[in-house]
Request: fold
Amino acid sequence: MKESRHYGAMTLYDTLRYHDSLDRSSFHTPGHKCSGFFPEDLLQLDYTELPDTDALYEASGPILRSEKKLAHLFGAGRSLISAGGCSLAIQAMLRLASMQQGKILCARNAHRSAINACALLGLEPVWLYPDSSRGFTGRISPEDVRAAFEENENITACYITSPSYYGELCDIGSIAEICHENGAILLVDNAHGSHLAFMKENMHPMFLGADMTACSLHKTLPVLTGGAVLNLRDESLGSAGKAAMSLFGSTSPSYPIMCSIDLCADYLENGGAKEYARCEDTVSELKAAAVKKGIAMPEGKCDPLRLTLGTAAAGLSGDKQQSYFEDCGIDCEFCDGEKAVFIITPFNSERDISRLRSAIENMPVGNAAECQSFEPVRPEKAMTLREALLSPTKIVPVAASRGMIAADTACPCPPGVPVVMPGELIDSLAISEMQKRGMTEIIVVK
Reply:
């Protein structure tokens, strides 16, 4: 994770102002890059639900009109705005899936919000393991999805993450076809891929056959942090979707966030989508520069706007990695000592791109190292997710946790492939893998 810095006794406001004064190029969320996209008076419009301002969970006026624009943009039967981030969209999506009253196939690299929602809803996932042998998250393969349907009865839904945090794309079309052949629906955590609908080739999961997608708009589009959307193929699920959102969401959704989503939809309808398509060429050039430098990147089909650099392969690793990019005037989305992630949007300036290109081309070459790979751990299940997460817990050293039951998801940031999930028994292999990932403590059931 990024190092946390505390600037003396500064307030949060002053801390943010100070960070802004550093004048670094933003290659992290949010997608608007603090570029001045929004009207200056947006934060002066922090109203609430009034007779003439509409209500999120009973949308019938301007919020409903905004949702219809979003449905058109994403090719959905119905789109539902979330001011509670993609986590709320994921929770609602899983609530709709739970109504099918069957088992759910679930990618092991699911976001923490999905794991917690499954526990609250009483869903017990059948895990699908991505191939993370090259140090990146990896993908869920159609073959593994098909095999899971053959090995398990009463599967009514399949939940996967695509793109991964590192930009790897699953074969959504093939997986959707397999799900539909087996009478199941496909849910996609598309948190990092809202922009995929606006590439030169439409790569959005809704276009490729998914039944529901949770999209974190603010990550790559010009939307205030916390703005997201739940896309539904079946328009008739709109009312149930609103009810599902109200089950988990705040009764005081932010109007500036919702307004920023509406402004983004207008931008995309009026030429903004073309700006995103053009951005592909910029990122393609940066990837070519990285290849020339000998920097490793995820293989296969990937997000055209996500740049993930395995800097260890070029000799830049450890504590030097993040400080190198900061010295180049760059804030990365993520650095872990051997990989760096950059989120690039049309709101990055020419100076931003020039800085990043120069950082890649001038990267110091030292003793190259491969991105660390991790052994897949398939622990024994000792309790349900719900039982483990709601049980009394304690924190213990990882080294002393053998034979205990995990009460939390053991996974480093960013969302990767957890070693153990809540309710799973910790064995010696799990301990070894947690230690390899730098984990020293774990929450277990008392």
About this structure: The CA atoms of residues 412 and 437 lie 7 Å apart. The longest helix spans residues 255-293. The chain has a mean pLDDT of 93.
